[in-house]
Every structure is written in structure tokens, then in C-alpha cells.
Amino acid sequence: MPVVSRRPAIVLPLAGALVCAFAALWSVEACAQTSDPGALELVDPQVFRACGDPRNLPFSNDKGEGFENKLAELFAAKLGKKLSYTYFPQATGFVRMTLGSYRCDIIMGFPQGDDQAQVTIPYYRTTYALVTKPGSGLEDVTAIDDPKLRDKRIGVVAKTPPSTNMAINGLLAHVKSYPLFIDTRADSSAQAMMDDLARGDIDCGILWGPMAGYLARQATPPFIVVPLTKETNGPQMTFRIGMAVRPADQEWKRTLNRLIMENQAEINKLLISYNIPILDEANVPITAETLSKRP
Fold first, then answer.
1. Mean pLDDT for the chain overall
2. Residue 74 scores a pLDDT above 70
3. Most CB atoms closer than 10 Å: which of 122, 183, 225, 274?
4. At what angle do helices 209-216 and 189-199 cross, to 10 degrees?
5. Angle between helices 67-79 and 264-273 (to 10 degrees)
6. At 26, phi and psi to the nearest 5?
């Protein structure tokens, strides 16, 4: 009888403790799933671990000055996480050495259609752009097949879509080519092109929109940037840009998708502050003026 009388005193508190422990664990996990379900797939759920290039403005640098740096800060704050960065030159092996090696959990800018990683919904849409000096007479050029470009000295980065379009339109005779694969820690094809344009060594340049807009604003006087949205042949020139995560990180991707949708207006303002040419689905530029008119 004493044994029987003691058993409830021992077993029931133990069972109660186990129930409370499981309830507490369930509560923590439920809370995490409610606030950030994707955190359960991450190496460190408390840290927003981003991948970036240490010297590739306007996107990112190791001083945190790029718009992708600022976007990472915004998302980390929204999720209540600390922010950390893994930097690696954005050249061959970038995805493998960063996201693929679990050194970070997100690449802040990644084109849809690239199968090296899983991509979120896009947070901006942009295109290659023509960069020229004010008064050049090229300010209204919106396609590479425009007759005004026939006798112009044009700068272009080799092996990018515009170089193929230029070949199709017979413009290679006057082209100046800049290398695509470089170590951004020591060189910049985009800046070299802008320097040549400033000196008059070329009449115009065709450059990826974000780099064109950012660098054109730094010239004195600022260069003119015209998105090339009227291409009728050749490879695709306009791309939707999202964020890259590992293929297995489905919940993390859903978390990021939600953040993009909830903060699109703020994202647009951030991009425009860097003079990035962004387009809606009808190829109409999204500007500070158009944003101010939206409800």
C-alpha cells in the first residue's frame, strides 16, 4: 500500500512535467512558424545570412553601401534577426562557394530563369540600357536596331545579350568590347566603359540597367540612361530579379515572398534612390513621380 500510495506522487508530476515541456517546445516552434516558418530550415535561425560581392556597387560591397545591402538590412529588421554577410567575388563559382556551401542563406539579387538556385518572386524588373551624353542626339533610342546607332562607336560587355543583338544588326564594326568575367575586387568593366564615354572614346555604351543608372548619375554632367525596351529580335534583354535560396528551402522562400509583397513600395523607393531603371510589366518606367501618384 505505501508503494501504491507513492506511485501517483512520483509518476503524475513526471508526466505533468513532460506535458509542460512538450507544450513549451510546441509553443516555441509554433511561434517560430508563425513569425518566420523559413527559420526552421536555416543554419542559424536568429541570423539573416546574406551572400554578396565585396566590390560590386550598386549591388553590394563590404562596407554595406549597395542597395542589396540595404535591402538585406530591411528584411533582417522585419524578421527581427541579426544581419551577417559572406562576401565572395561574383564570378564563376559564386553560387557554389556561398549559398551552395551553406555559408549564407540568401543571394539578394538573382535573375529568374537561372537554374543554379531556387528564386523567389521578383522584386524588380529591369533591362539593358543605352548610356549617352546629354545632347548626343541618342536620347530617344530605345532599340539596338535604331538607324541612329549605325555609325556610332558603342561600348558593350562581351557575351551579354546586347552583344548578340548588335551582331544581328551589323554593329560590331565600331564596337568596343569590355570583358564579362573579371575579379570585381580589382577591376570594373562598367566603370571602364563610363570612363571611355566621358573621354569621348566611345559615343555611347550599352550596359545592364542597374549599373547604367547608378554610374550615369556619378558623371558630370550626369549621363542619359535610356532603357532598351523595344527590341524585336535577338536574345531577351529584360529580366525579372528575385532572391536566390537553396532548392530545399521551401518555407524560407515563402517567408521571403511574403516580405517582398508586403514591402514592394519601400523596395521600389530604395531602388529609385540608387537611380536603378525599373519597369512595370508593360515596360513603363517606375519613377518617384509615378510612385507618389499610386494609392
1. 86
2. yes
3. 225
4. 50
5. 150
6. -60, -40
CATH 3.40.190.10: which residues of the chain? 39-124+239-293, 125-238
Cα 116 from chain centroid (whole Å)? 15
> What's the rounded Cα separation, in Å, for the pair 203 and 288?
29
User: Looking at domain 125-238, does it have CATH number 3.40.190.10?
Assistant: yes
Check whether 71 has a pLDDT greater than 50: yes
pLDDT tens-place string over residues 153-177: 999 999 999 999 999 999 999 999 9
Cα separations in angstroms, 196 against 131, 147, 178: 12, 23, 11
pLDDT of residue 22 exceeding 50:
no
CA-CA distance, 195 to 193, in Å (whole number)? 5
Which has the higher per-residue pLDDT, 34 or 82? 82
Report CA 33 to chain centroid distance, whole Å: 26
Q: Is the peptide bond before 58 cis (omega within 30 degrees of 0)?
A: yes
**pLDDT tens, residue by residue, 197-243:** 999 999 999 999 999 999 999 999 999 999 999 988 888 899 999 99
Q: Looking at residue 194, what is its pLDDT?
A: 97
Residue 123 · residue 260 · CB < 8 Å: yes
Ramachandran assignment for 263, one of left (phi > 0), alpha (psi -120 to 50 degrees), beta (any other): alpha
CA angle at 120 for the pair 119 and 125, rounded to the nearest 5°: 95
Integer-rounded Cα radius of gyration of the chain: 25
Q: Output the CA–CA distances (angstroms, integers) from residue 4 to 21, 159, 180, 253, 295, in the order listed.
A: 26, 83, 81, 55, 72
Give the CATH number of domain 39-124+239-293; options: 3.60.110.10, 3.40.50.720, 3.40.190.10, 3.40.50.620.
3.40.190.10
